[in-house]
Amino acid sequence: MSDRLIVIPTYNESENIRELHAAIRGACDFGILFVDDSSPDGTAGVVEEVMSEDPGVMLLRRTGEKGLGRAYEDGFRMLLGMGRWRRVFMMDADLSHQPVHLTALDEALSEYDMVLGSRYTRGVSVLNWSIMRLNLSYSANAYIKGVTGLPFSDCTSGFRGIRADRLEGLLLGRRYAGGYAFLVEMLHRAWRQGLSIGEVPIVFVEREHGASKISSRILLESFFTPIRLRLGRSRSAGTAQ
Question: How many CB atoms lie within 10 A of CB 168?
Fold first, then answer.
């Protein structure tokens, strides 16, 4: 059995589970851990049906909608407790992340501690986004890089790979942001800890089924998190002097 594991948070993604599972199996034999926040549309039930057909699939049920960041944290702690995975991958359940890129991410982990699936290393590799959505994403990355100093082209990408032995150090200390800002905070923490981080070009495809989980609260958290990270870094530098 593979020593690679993909962690996939889910909330109301029942329409996408089987197609996503088939696409992953068409690309690799990695283990799959779905982390579901009590989806009212029965996502967990669909995952359990897939589990009965594929022993490489697991499900972590959580009570209530706790957010992307908490889902990843709980999933990471579960897999570290099992102690059998060497490389861990992160991806969305909405089919926007193409499983065909998993092999490239895996190969890059032979060189780096963490790898980002980037939409912006070769111009813009995004399908079916409006100009407004594209401008928002591009501007968000420019803002994050400007505030935090992160040197990567796609700081908000949720399609990533990381060596499992690096995860424990990233989970120590203050908890991460609860929503999508978790992705920025995790990357910032890895960068500050001196992990080697690379980027692999991917093609991002807008979801066809289901609805986006972005809310005004998540947008506010995403705006203030880079400022918090910058201020925290400034305080650490001041203490060290």
Answer: 11
Residue 225 falls inside a structural domain:
no
Cα–Cα distance, 219 to 205 (Å, whole number): 21
The number of folded domains in the chain is: 1
Q: What is the mean pLDDT of residues 208-235?
A: 73
- The answer to whether residue 83 sits within a structural domain is yes
Short-list 92, 81, 117, CA closest to 102: 117
pLDDT surpasses 70 at 215: no
Between helix 181-192 and helix 216-240 the angle, nearest 10°, is 20
Position 175 scores a pLDDT of 74
Q: Domain range holding 38?
A: 4-131+154-175+196-211
Give the integer Cα–Cα distance in Å for 132 and 139. 10
Is residue 117 a contact partner of residue 159, using CB atoms and an 8 Å limit? yes
Task: Report whether 98 contacts 6 (CB < 8 A).
Answer: no
84: its two tokens: 């059998």
Find the farthest-apart pair of alpha carbons in the chain and give their distance in angstroms, rounded: 58
- Look at residue 149 and tell me if it is in a domain: no
Overall pTM > 0.85: yes
**The pLDDT of residue 173:** 74
Q: Are strands 31-36 and 57-61 parallel, antiparallel or unpaired?
A: parallel
